[in-house]
Design a protein that fits this description.
The longest helix is centred in the last third of the chain and has 37 residues. The protein is mostly helical. Helix content is 81%, strand content 0%.
Length: 241
């Protein structure tokens, strides 16, 4: 949102500050979340009442996913930056590439390499990381604003406060459904392995409908941010593409 506003306002200095702040905050939150979640992995499984017969595999999968939090944050960061700068195609192309690669790596790690559920987790993390790297390469080529300089990392206090004030409400809004799903999953876990399998399969199908809403939210957020930054805040311009 912040980068989109600066982009709409044609504020190159502000755009560079926003990219620098986003990078630093992403690194900081990644380190903190990775350390906390990995250290509490066993406790999290106990809190969620994972059935004992699948707790080992659940830990293997969850630990790898938590350990690879940086790859997920990296991809989300660079894809959101590109969308804020007006390039929504590149993140989409590499998201499709990541999904196809994930399927291929799933088969490779699970069948020939016998890595089990941990292999599926590594497939997800590696495909996300590679997609993020490729998105970054394209972004650096197409947007000189992403080539940060030392001075872009100075006097960031106001920018950090603005990003946190904007990001926390948006992050909480997006996490509400996830929090509810975790609460529901905890209850389902207490019913046994069969219930867990059934609920997980149904959740995957249900998520297809949620993806449409998330895509619309992302598109509208970037559109409104750029128009707001450009000072075009009248109702007609904001509601009609």
């Amino acid at each position: 949102m912040c980068l989109g506003q600066k982009c709409g306002a044609k504020d190159e200095k502000g755009m560079r500050k926003s990219v620098a702040v986003s990078t630093l905050l992403s690194i900081a939150f990644t380190v903190v979340l990775t350390l906390i979640c990995c250290l509490l992995a066993h406790q999290i499984l106990r809190w969620m009442q994972i059935p004992s017969d699948i707790s080992g595999e659940a830990y293997d999968y969850m630990f790898v996913v938590l350990f690879g939090t940086g790859a997920t944050v990296f991809y989300n960061m660079i894809s959101n930056m590109l969308r804020a700068l007006g390039d929504s195609k590149t993140p989409l192309y590499f998201l499709v590439f990541s999904s196809v690669l994930n399927i291929f790596l799933d088969i490779l790690f699970i069948v020939p390499l016998h890595m089990g559920v941990a292999g599926a987790a590594w497939a997800t993390i590696l495909s996300q990381f590679l997609s993020a790297v490729l998105s970054l390469i394209v972004g650096l080529k197409n947007f000189p604003i992403l080539h940060l300089r030392r001075e872009d990392f100075t006097d960031l206090k106001d920018a950090v406060i603005l990003h946190l004030k904007t990001g926390f409400p948006m992050g909480f809004q997006m996490s509400v459904m996830c929090i509810g799903q975790l609460a529901m999953q905890t209850v389902v876990n207490s019913l046994g392995t069969a219930a867990v399998a059934g609920y997980t399969a149904a959740s995957k199908a249900d998520q297809l409908s949620v993806l449409v809403n998330n895509a619309m939210m992302t598109a509208i957020s970037n559109y409104v941010a750029q128009n707001f930054g450009a000072g075009r805040t009248d109702e007609h311009r904001l509601l009609h593409v």
